[in-house]
Amino acid sequence: MSKKQKIISWSIYLGLIIILLILVFIVPGKEKHEGIQETMQDGVLHELNKVDLFGLEVNPGLISGFVVTGILLIFALIIRIFVIPKFKLVPGKIQMLLEQAVSFFDNLATSNSPHHNKFLGCYIFGAGCYIFVGTIFELLGLQVIGSNGNPITLPAPLSDINGAIMIGCLSYLVIMFGGIYANKGKGVLLTLKEFSLPISMSFRLFGALLSGLLVTELVYYYLPLSFVLPVIVGVLFTLIHALVQTYVLTMLTSLFYGEVSEVKPKKKKEKKVKKAVA
């Protein structure tokens, strides 16, 4: 590229940046019907915006959970019927991508639980896919009509505290299952020692995903910043949280599963030698 072409390219980039900055401060933002306090409080508690589901008012996160589950099941069915039968010895792009994803979670399960890892690999693969897809789901911006008649944008399923608690408790039950399968009653005792594990996993996941939502709402609320910046902030926070939280929960689950499912060697009973009484 010649020096003249570089100057033209940089001039175009600089002009676009200037136009965006002008639009940020000139174009009026959308009028807010709720204060920032009410907006952020509803992002945590979901008390204002509810969705009617067969006569019951539920949190929009539940609808998001159903949609994400349906997307994953349909995608898995398509892969199983149309993609897997066409696998070749020399993999193509789609086959290589699927094999890399499966290998990542399989290696994670094998390295942390070398004795019992078949079911663990399946679980953390499913949980990881749900967390990742569920987190980036909010980028689609799908809307439903709330019970009050206003449109509601569907959030990430795990930004609802109920969804985060459920996946945390489910992971804890999987860990307990591994302990019972390998060590019977001792496995239950080993798992019960970590009684705070489901709470920590649930609130870590919930807090991380909710922080992105609240930061985006906070930036979008102020009119001068509500044109370009929320898009960048929202996408960055969503992608980072999707990757980090998927890795953190699957890693913690595999670590604790491997710890409680490790077969404990039986202690040999030493024969007591009676000392002769003098």
User: Into which percentage range does the β-strand content fall?
Assistant: under 5%
Helix percent reads 55-70%
Mean pLDDT, all residues: 78
Give the C-alpha Rg: 26 Å
Given the structure, what is the number of helices? 9
How would you characterize the largest beta sheet? Answer: 2 strands, antiparallel
Domains (count):
1
List keywords for this structure.
9 helices, 4 strands, mainly alpha, about 5% strand, about 280 residues, two-stranded antiparallel ribbon, two-stranded antiparallel sheet
Itemize the secondary structure elements and their pairings.
Elements: H1 3-26, H2 36-45, E1 51-53, E2 56-58, H3 60-83, H4 93-112, H5 118-136, E3 143-145, E4 151-153, H6 161-183, H7 185-192, H8 197-221, H9 229-261
Antiparallel strand pairs: 1-2, 3-4
Helix pairs in contact: 2-8, 3-5, 4-5, 4-9, 5-9, 6-7, 6-8, 6-9, 8-9
Q: Your description of this structure?
A:
The chain is mainly alpha-helical and 278 residues long. The chain has one domain. It is built from 9 helices and 4 strands, in the order H-H-E-E-H-H-H-E-E-H-H-H-H. It has helices at 3-26, 36-45, 60-83, 93-112, 118-136, 161-183, 185-192, 197-221, 229-261; strands spanning 51-53, 56-58, 143-145, 151-153. The protein has a two-stranded antiparallel sheet with strand order 1-2. A two-stranded antiparallel sheet has the order 3-4. Helix 3 crosses helix 5 (118-136) and helix 4 packs across helix 5. The chain is globular. Mean pLDDT is 78; it is low at 27-33 and 270-278.
